[in-house]
Amino acid sequence: MFGIKRDDPIIITATLWRGAMIDRFAQIEFLIDRTLACCVAAATINETEAEATLPSHRCKTLLKALNHPRLAAKAKPARDSLKTVLTLWSERNALCHGRFKPAAKSVSLHWIAHENGKRVTKHIQILPTQMLAKLGELDRLKTVLGSQLGEINKLCANPAT
Length: 161
Prior knowledge:
Elements: H1 9-41, H2 47-50, H3 55-65, H4 72-87, H5 89-97, E1 99-102, E2 107-115, E3 118-126, H6 128-157
Antiparallel strand pairs: 1-2, 2-3
């Protein structure tokens, strides 16, 4: 690996960062799935749509559910956060399916994206400070989204509010 040993700090840092980022995305997927279940129970979305195979499709389905007249007035913050999640989805795919290529002070992540029926090779190069910043941003998004979706779950459980 270009003269970099497996126990080099950049490799360890990048591996830990990758795992932490994937964990945050998994937590976001859990939040989305839990709220979809609440929306199904409240009949704001049908069960077939809520059971979409791909996580990005479930996110889009939840966006649709949050436009339901029963939820729309209070769901704008959650919709905005979900839209942000969708903009980050290619990073999630890169983290889950990409390959690391280390350099002395940074790491490149290479992956294949499928956009509009075409394979597109992509990569990012990231420094340890950028890794920490991205993790912090995703962590904040997860926390805010969790709170917002918690409010939606309460609204679904108690439609009179």
